[in-house]
Structure formats: structure tokens, C-alpha cells
Amino acid sequence: AQKVTQAQTEISVVEKEDVTLDCVYETRDTTYYLFWYKQPPSGELVFLIRRNSFDEQNEISGRYSWNFQKSTSSFNFTITASQVVDSAVYFCALSELTGNQFYFGTGTSLTVIP
Amino acid sequence: KAGVTQTPRYLIKTRGQQVTLSCSPISGHRSVSWYQQTPGQGLQFLFEYFSETQRNKGNFPGRFSGRQFSNSRSEMNVSTLELGDSALYLCASSLASGRPQQYFGPGTRLTVL
Questions:
Q1: How far apart are CA B67 and CA B92, in angstroms?
Q2: To the nearest whole number, what is the mean pLDDT of chain B?
């Protein structure tokens, strides 16, 4: 069965610090997608990044970067030079190749202190 | 392009009543999925509709149902409401089933008294 674990429940950082959010997943599928979403207080889930299982290249997009390691089933997300506007709950999610069912982690609440 | 819209945004009902929530996907998107978010259970998949057919269903009782119309708009219905049904209900749209890039709406916050 698919499962996503976000062990960090809450994180607080001071503005301009870097912060890494951890995500570990379980799946028996050989091909799958991994996502990070941000949920501000308004409630809407905002898409951040997507990675498919057959592409382990790690990338940087602006202040966001991610580290996908299939060998350890981890998909960590880093925000560099954090800003107050980054304060939100961040969700890691896993999706099978077929169908659109997402399996979400329990979320990490990030607070950036000015 | 307009995003996913959900109506109403807030709803208060009493136990035993039924409720219908609406979701309009992004134009051109044909797949709509529904999720329930509660503090205790987190985000849980309810069901997915594509081309007016339910493609996948999560582990929820039969009180939760949905449908999709020919214009891809979707509704979900909860009958005989229970206190535990209080939650944020999120709708997500994607181009098609099997196209995992989903875009979420702002949600409908349901409170059951």
C-alpha cells in the first residue's frame, strides 16, 4: 500500500534561514509521481513541484530545491533564504501512474519568524 | 485561465441533514477528484470522476457520493450528516485520468452542528 510520512510536524525558522522538509514514502509501484504542495491559511493547495520516479535528477527552481533519492524512498524539499510568506503547511504527496488518487503525508507546518 | 472553483465556500449544517458541494474544474480539464481534510485524518481521497464516470473511490461510507456532468462540473453529496463530517472538502482537477498534475480549488468548509 502507498504511504507518505512527514515526520516533522512543526518547524520554525528565522527569516533568511534555509529549511528542509522531509518526506519518506512507501509504494510497491515501480513508476509513480511525487509532489510537494503548499497550503496557506486560505486553505487552497498550491502546487510547488512534481517529480516522476524514473527521473532522479535534482533541480533548483528559484528558492526551491528538492532531493529525490529512490534508494532511500525520500523526497526532501528545501527552501533557501526563507521568507515570512513561506509560512504555511507543506504536504508531500504520492500518485500512482494511473488514476489521479493522491496519497498525502500529514503535513509540516512551517513558521518563518521575521 | 480561471482556476478551480468550489461553491459554497462555507456551509453550516446540522446532524442528519444532507449537503451538496459543487466543483467547476479548469476549462478543458475532464478529471475531478475530491478530498476530505480533517485535523485528525489529514487529507483523504474520496473519489475521482472522469467523463461522467467514477474511476476510483476511497474508503468512505456510502453516505458520500458524487457525480460529474457532461461539462465536467462535479458535485459531491453527503447524506445523513454526522459531526465527524465537519471538514474542508477540496476538489482538484486535471486534464484526464492518469494525468497526475492536479490543481486544487479553495475548498468548501463544512461545519456540522
A1: 14
A2: 93
